[in-house]
Amino acid sequence: MESAALKVGELARRTGLTVRTLHHYDDIGLLSPSRRTPAGHRLYALTEVRRLQQIASLRQLGLSLEDIRGCLDRPEYTLEQVLDLQIRRLRDEITRQRRLCTLLEALRDRVRSETEDLSLDDLTNSVQATLDFGKYYTPEQLERIARRGAELGPERIRGSQVEWQELLAAFGRAMEEGLDPASDDVQALASKAYSLVEEFTGGDPGIRSGLTRMCQEEGGENILARYGTPLKEGLWEYYTKAMKASGLFGGSPESRP
Question: What is the mean pLDDT of residues 113-138?
Answer without folding.
Answer: 58
